[in-house]
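Lay summary. Proteins are chains of building blocks that fold into shapes, and those shapes determine what they do. In this project we predict the shape from the chain. Here is one chain we studied, written as its sequence of building blocks.
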Amino acid sequence: MWIYEKRLQYPVNITQTNAKLAQIIISQFGGPDGELAASQRYLSQRYTMPDKVAKGLLTDIGSEELNHMEIVCAVIYQLTRNLSIEEIKASGFDKYYVDHTTALWPQAAGGVPFNACQFQSKGDAITDLTEDLAAEQKARTTYDNILRLIDDPEICDPIRFLRAREIVHFQRFGEALRHIQESLDSNNFYAFNPEFDRP
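And here is the predicted shape, written in a compact code that computers can read:
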């Protein structure tokens, strides 16, 4: 199904470690609106999507989100590699370090571990695509918040790239939702159906 290219979609070259910033950015790995949840959301929803165009879109974007997760993880790794114990203690990274050293582990910036309850796969085309639109907007807002907190161009450049892709994904899901809605009629389970609306 996939051909994996061993390169990031956008280069990450961070020269200065900074565990405080890594603790912020980690939310886009394992947080409620992060790339791990996005990839699993779209790749799960694709199976019950009744429309081939929307199913293909979910596969495409779900696959791209896996690459975005790699970019986020590369940023976090480069911000935490070779930290001294003194830097770990001074940055407040010690709580994470106790459980994971500097390995990548999905959690939100507040320390809440990743949980599959952070995304939904409902099996209803309109419900799922509406969920996807909201997910892309929430991810964009999270990237906005990260950019408000960070001014290092080595970090901001890949974050801006990821933010821009959230906007494109939002637009593509909007197109898919319009496509689905235009193809609906009163006999379609995903549209108005008088049987469900009787008192």
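What the prediction tells us: Residues 22 and 140 are 18 Å apart (CA to CA).
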